[in-house]
Specification:
The chain is of the alpha/beta class. The chain has one domain. It contains 12 helices and 8 strands. It has a 6-stranded parallel β-sheet, with helices on both faces. A two-stranded antiparallel ribbon has the order 1-2. Helix 1 packs across helix 5, helix 2 crosses helix 3 and helix 2 packs across helix 12. It comes from Bombilactobacillus folatiphilus. Its EC number is 2.4.1.187. Pathway: Cell wall biogenesis; teichoic acid biosynthesis.
Length: 237
């Protein structure tokens, strides 16, 4: 059992990326159904304001501390988390495991051109995994997607529909396949090469959020949740 730290009523796992990856590898090889939520401050605030969503993501097997704001909150509450575990890093770890064992992967979400580039890049970088299907995030009905997942029984289902839609989708359909299901937000934008991730030294300085903001100023409104998140944490302190 992983140690968990509660922040705004959400139980975040407190462990290293390496240990979490090893755990996911064990669960994948055993074909254990797994639901992973990668929660940043924006998601934490949304969950705080929407009890139905909060209760839904609390059914996940693992909620990871995705964002330096979550790490800072743990410190403010005197319950420090071991390490930041991002959705992108978790997804790439899962793809590496899939490549190692020739596991089946299904991708859902993003714009049509983004998912196409993502598929191409994944097939080039991870040639041994089996990409059994994919679909962009612009669909009228979920039925064909679920039929394909039910038929192909992928080991990993990565859903990039943005919150809360991706978590609602996973919670609704995770029983159709004993997969590792993970909501990955904008990770396909990075995997496709359409968005560049911050250099490693910036990540190590915990300034990846600033790099994303400067690279894409339109994201400014999304950072509006951070001050409120910190205010809520201080109220709980």
């Amino acid at each position: 059992m992983l140690n968990k730290i509660t922040i705004l009523e959400l139980p975040f796992i407190s462990t290293t990326n390496q240990a979490f990856t090893q755990l996911l590898e064990q669960r994948l090889t055993r074909k254990q159904n797994t639901f992973i939520v990668t929660a940043n401050p924006e998601i934490a605030v949304y969950a705080y304001d929407h009890p139905d969503y909060r209760n839904l993501i609390k059914t996940a097997d693992y909620i990871t501390p995705d964002g330096i704001g979550i790490i800072k909150a743990g410190q403010m509450l005197n319950t420090p988390l071991v390490e930041r575990i991002t959705g992108f890093d978790t997804l790439t770890s899962l793809l590496e495991i899939a490549n190692k064992y020739s596991l089946k992967v299904y991708l859902l979400g993003a714009k049509p051109e983004i998912i196409q580039k993502t598929v191409t890049n994944i097939q080039q970088k991870y040639p041994k995994l089996k990409l059994v299907g994919y679909h962009d995030g612009y669909f009228q009905t979920e039925q064909p997607i679920m039929e394909q997942i039910t038929q192909t029984q992928p080991d990993i289902v990565a859903v990039a529909l943005g919150f809360p839609k991706q978590e609602e989708f996973i919670a609704k359909y995770r029983t159709v396949s004993p997969s590792t299901w993970i909501g990955v937000g904008g990770s396909f934008d990075v995997l496709s090469g359409s968005v560049k991730r911050a250099p490693t030294f910036i990540q190590n300085l915990h300034l990846e959020w600033l790099y994303r903001l400067l690279s894409h100023p339109t994201r400014l409104k999304r950072f509006g949740a951070l001050p409120r998140f910190l205010k809520l944490i201080k109220q709980k302190h």
